[in-house]
From TrEMBL:
One of its GO terms (molecular function) is alpha,alpha-trehalose-phosphate synthase (UDP-forming) activity. One of its GO terms (biological process) is trehalose biosynthetic process. Belongs to the glycosyltransferase 20 family. PANTHER family: BCDNA.GH08860 (PTHR10788:SF106), TREHALOSE-6-PHOSPHATE SYNTHASE (PTHR10788). InterPro entries: Glyco_trans_20 (IPR001830). This is Trehalose-6-phosphate synthase. Pfam families: Glyco_transf_20.
């Protein structure tokens, strides 16, 4: 078994198998913020990525992806149902997102969560060389730091949570809250998107485990665990370079023409998830059409909603409701060749996404709760022309870093409508000033700055950092 000095552990590998039109299996970058953040960072780094390749059955052997070794962990049908769809996405995901949908609790799901976490920990212990840095990602694997420390005390272990960490009132509902906290405390550094999340975590370890904690440090046995906020980001330069390509600019012009050359295009790009506020946004747009504030001929909405977690009941219900509402709005307000909403559920390559961003006069990113939201950052990075208005939810982690966006509360329908109108009607000079400020922020706070800040806290020798970030 080849071993690495840096091992990233995430439920998902950065590639997904998709069946192509001719029936062949092709590997494609998987949509989602975690992969979007880590994939450009690790490219050409001698690291191993431990994760699930999608599907069930024996783990496929994958070739290296951009120089990174792929170490696959198999999931059975029961694991998929009880660990991924169950405990991770029907218990933890709703609790961590303000319980905007009801979390479910089943003892069988917890058994699967423990079992799958142990399998990930075993796989990681195999591929980590002595003294390696191991970086465990996200809510699917909260027990891995503790399990790994028990097996391999020589490792330097980091944990990063990409999603929000909830206030104590919500977390306390979890029947296995103590085990989950103890699992995370197996790490040397526990990172969150926001300072508030680190604060919630510190309060909880004191309340549930009786440990002394500040918002920066927690004493566990004879160790000190550091905690802190490290807002994740994107490869800003890469997205800007892609969006500057002449063929992307041409594609954006073509898209505008194909959309019927409207005066304004509103764009949303989400995974089909109830945290993203898709239904609220459709309602706001529909009411603006009803009130006559917006006319379909002048202003179209492009909603990209790539299906996600499709076997989880709440996701199926959401998709049905969204599609019914899109159909209703198009039936009521569209004309032949002129739909009110262009609704797309396909995954796109990065160049097509960049072209969509360039065509959007208003980018509507209005989740009810989101750890960060990288789509908002990608939009800003793609606007190399300093144009385009970002309508952003106050409940996305990105809002703390991008206060120049048009900020809205997506739970307030009237506020959402007013925000959308304000963004549509904003003076070009105001739009440009805001965009410039946001672009300046993201140029500095990109994915490499994130890795620098996290890894220099985790690995104080600095050797790993210089290899990853090129100095
Ligand atoms: P989440 O992680 O909850 O899905 P983010 O906004 O942080 O939300 O990240 C979503 C990532 O998935 C972004 O990098 C975005 O570009 C990508 N993505 C979203 N929709 C698509 C799509 N239809 N095709 C390809 N990539 C997509
Ligand atoms: C969010 C989570 C990631 C997850 C992604 C896509 O970004 O934080 O851990 O990979 O959504 O979801 P999926 O269930 O398809 O992996």
């Amino acid at each position: 078994m080849r071993q690495s000095s840096l091992v990233v552990v995430a439920n998902r590998l950065p590639v997904n198998d998709n069946v192509a039109l001719d029936g062949a299996c092709e590997w494609r970058r998987s949509p989602g913020g975690l992969v979007s953040a880590l994939h450009p960072l690790l490219r050409h780094t001698p690291a191993t990525w431990v994760g699930w390749a999608g599907g069930t059955g024996p783990a496929p052997t994958l070739p290296d992806v951009d120089g990174v070794r792929m170490h696959t962990v198999p999931l059975t049908g029961d694991d998929l149902r009880d660990h991924y769809e169950g405990f991770a996405n029907a218990t933890l995901w709703p609790i961590y997102h303000d319980a905007v949908e009801q979390p479910e609790h089943h003892r069988r799901w917890w058994d699967a969560y423990q079992r799958v976490n142990q399998r990930f920990a075993d796989a990681t212990a195999e591929v980590a060389e002595p003294g390696a840095v191991v970086w465990v990602q996200d809510y699917h694997l909260q027990l891995v730091p503790g399990l790994l420390r028990a097996m391999r005390p020589d490792l330097r272990i980091g944990f990063f949570l990409h999603v929000p960490f909830p206030p104590p009132e919500l977390f306390m509902q979890l029947p296995r809250r103590a085990e989950l906290l103890r699992g995370m405390l197996g790490a040397d550094l526990v990172g969150f998107q926001r300072a508030q999340a680190a604060h919630n975590f510190a309060q909880l370890v004191t309340k549930v485990l009786g440990l002394p904690a500040t918002d920066r440090r927690i004493g566990v046995d004879d160790r000190m665990v550091r905690i802190g906020a490290f807002p994740v980001s994107i490869d800003t330069a890469e997205m800007s370079a892609l969006a500057s390509r002449p063929e992307v600019a041409d594609r954006a012009r073509r898209l505008r023409h194909d959309l019927g050359s409207p005066e304004q295009v509103i764009l949303s790009v989400d995974r089909m998830d109830y945290t993203k506020g898709i239904e609220q946004r459709l309602k706001a747009y529909s009411e603006l059409l009803t009130d006559g504030h917006v006319k379909v001929r002048d202003t179209v909405l492009v909603q990209v909603a790539v299906p996600s977690r499709e076997r989880v009941g709440q996701y199926q219900i959401l998709r049905e409701r969204v599609e019914r509402e899109v159909g209703r709005i198009n039936g009521e307000f569209g004309r032949v060749g002129e739909p009110a909403i262009h609704y797309l559920t396909q995954p796109f390559d990065r160049a097509e996404l960049a072209a969509l961003y360039r065509v959007a006069d208003v980018m509507a990113v209005t989740p009810l709760r989101d750890g960060m939201n990288l789509v908002a950052k990608e939009y800003v990075a793609a606007r190399v022309d300093d144009a385009g208005a970002l309508l952003l939810s106050e409940f996305a982690g990105a809002a703390a870093e991008l206060p120049q966006a048009y900020l809205v509360n997506p739970h307030d329908l009237e506020g959402l409508k007013q925000g959308l109108l304000a963004a549509l009607r904003a003076e070009p000079a105001d739009v440009q000033e805001r965009m410039r400020a946001m672009r300046a922020h993201l140029r500095e706070h990109d994915i490499r700055a994130w890795a620098r800040s996290y890894l220099s806290t985790l690995d104080q020798s600095g050797s790993l950092l210089s290899r990853l970030t090129g100095g």
